[in-house]
Structure prediction request, 483 residues.
Amino acid sequence: MIENVIEISVDQLLIEVQNAMYDEYRFVTCTCVDTADGKLDIYYHFDKKLVLKNLKISVKKGDEVPSVSKIYFSALLVENEMKELFGLNVTNILIDYGGHMLLSDDELTSPMLKQQIVIVQKGEE
Amino acid sequence: MSKTVIPFGPQHPVLPEPIHLKLVMQDEKVLEAIPAIGYVHRGLEKLTETKEYTENVFIVERICGICSFMHAQAYCQGLESLMGVQIPDRAKYLRVIWGELHRIHSHLLWLGLLADSFGFESLFMQLWRNREKVMDIMEETAGSRIIISTNQVGGTRRDISKELLIKITIIVDEIKEDMRQVEKVFLKDYTVKHRLVGIGVLTSEKAYSLGAVGPMARASGIKMDLRMTGYAAYGELDFEPVVEKDGDCYARTSVRLKEVYQSVALIKQAIAKMPAGEISVPVKGNPTGEIISRVEQPRGEVLYYMKGNGTKKLDRLRIRTPTFANIPTLLQMLPGSQLADVPVLILTIDPCISCTER
Prediction:
């Protein structure tokens, strides 16, 4: 089991991340998990003296999640990645690739989600 | 003065893998650097959801050739912890030996590439010739030079015989002696120092706030190395991270160079203390719950998040590789630098793009 998991609401996210910064935590990364019930779990992993602290938020698909890249610059890549691969609606990322950091135009939208529905009409290319 | 945008990569002589940087220049000075990746994204995290957890060992090894063993190690250690599996002590020591051999060949590869980037071809060849000795050990102990597939959930697949362990001790000593010769060139040669000293300085505070890991962080004075947590058999070996203060390209080179000696010492310690016995235990059942596993790769910390659902297939496997953490440092180091230093600066983060994109 993961130790040091603190479940918070989306509204608390920026405050808690700011607190982590004040407490001299290093930003490690984020992990996005599709729970297959229409929700996404997002973990924000921080490290201090080789001990992890994990903030966890749960959001419905399509809900807005504020970017933490203004607090931790290094979060911008993983936030862009979650936005592309999971369709997570991260707002105000410091450098927003607009869904094209890893994927090209003709890639499947949000390929990491559990359910991918691709409807192709008969006769359609 | 007007600004110019110079595309750097994705194909460039100093880049072993494709990354594209848009360099906004004023004369010869870099004002801004914007990275573009996505050339080698393979969707490996998604692929692991379709395979059984035992098969995933082979997938995670293929994330990166250079640190393939440590990918498998981080994965296996995480699942062993999640499933409550206690692996034999001998397997822990074997993991240290193969892991440190990977660190040596990764650092020698990087040092060679660095020499090549500033045009020192003979130095490059000396280092890669030395690296071949490690590759030969891999082949002899595992049957393969790069992706050795010796890890499995529950221990290791292969053992190393007593005779081979003695041979490894002799070969790593040879590597150490060869390194003594090139070390003088790297650390004392006027032209090499001219290209490295004071270039791309990353202060300790900046490195920490940007989330730098591995030799990038240690070269800036941050004493951070996951081997200090004592995973595998590291807790039973004498180990002190190599740390430098200056935070420039020279310090990053020095850290990696000294870590080659340190790996040689760790391998010799592990061989001397290696216990006899089994190398793996049978693993029953399927993983349930979540776990995070971290390992110190040659480029720094790798993080594995795993979520099992009681079936043979994992719900989620997330991997954060060290280069992913070090790219933001590059974006902060490049502005203000000279165009001629850009290749060296990019190389000093030891970029692995296959790792980054997975």
